[in-house]
């Protein structure tokens, strides 16, 4: 719903409430949505807070502009191996073990990890929402040279000349190696 009616305490103490965007209608620019506090007796606007409604989308369905902003932010976060992405890699591979992969905390650990990653990407570009991938469905737009790359026979990803991920560096080694364990066009 577009409006949320709340009764505020006369004492001025705060109350908790949650807001969310409409599914399928994310913001397209920072601060293009507004929360307004309106006095119901007079209709006067007492306060406004501009914000952005970020909705995570299926990566296979991103627009070209959304895809380009996302991969640009990821490339900036990596900064040819000199950026903050190395911290995320180290947390995920070394510092996070065994909690990240071998304990009951697997799911909550990764939810927090991805939220931290999304927030760091939003520092670079506030319009970014971390996309998800339905790995049980074909993803022809995702596994493409213009997006997250296509693995060659050695598993090294190949990118289009305009894709900033082509300059990815991890542990001082250029490139990304990811041999697919399934057919990326069919999902099997």
Describe it.
By secondary structure, the protein is α+β, with helices and mostly antiparallel strands. The protein has helices at residues 64-78, 85-95, 106-124, and strands at residues 33-38, 45-51, 150-151, 157-158, 169-170, 173-174. A hairpin with a 2-residue loop joins strand 5 and strand 6. The mean pLDDT is 86.
Largest sheet: 2 strands, antiparallel
Fraction in beta strands: 5-15%
Strand order of the largest sheet: 1-2
Number of strands: 6
Shape from CA axes?
elongated
List the helices and strands and how they pair.
Elements: E1 33-38, E2 45-51, H1 64-78, H2 85-95, H3 106-124, E3 150-151, E4 157-158, E5 169-170, E6 173-174
Antiparallel strand pairs: 1-2, 3-4, 5-6
Helix pairs in contact: 1-3
Characteristic key phrases:
188 residues; alpha+beta; two-stranded antiparallel sheet
Report a brief summary of the structure.
This protein is an alpha+beta fold.
């Amino acid at each position: 719903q577009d409006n949320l009616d709340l009764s505020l305490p006369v004492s001025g103490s705060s109350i908790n409430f949650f807001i969310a965007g409409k599914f399928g209608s994310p913001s397209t620019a920072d601060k293009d949505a507004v929360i307004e506090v309106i006095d119901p007796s007079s209709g006067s606007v007492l306060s406004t807070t501009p914000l952005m409604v970020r909705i995570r989308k299926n990566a296979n369905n991103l627009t070209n502009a959304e895809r380009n902003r996302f991969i640009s932010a990821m490339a900036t976060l990596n900064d040819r191996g000199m950026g903050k992405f190395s911290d995320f890699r180290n947390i995920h591979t070394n510092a996070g073990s065994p909690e990240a992969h071998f304990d009951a905390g697997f799911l909550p650990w990764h939810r927090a990890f991805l939220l931290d990653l999304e927030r760091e990407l939003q520092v670079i570009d506030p319009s970014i929402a971390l996309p998800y991938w339905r790995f049980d469905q074909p993803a022809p737009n995702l596994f493409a040279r213009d997006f997250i790359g296509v693995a060659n026979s050695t598993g090294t990803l190949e990118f289009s000349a305009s894709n900033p991920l082509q300059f990815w560096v991890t542990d001082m080694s250029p490139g990304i190696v990811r041999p697919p364990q399934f057919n990326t066009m069919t999902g099997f």
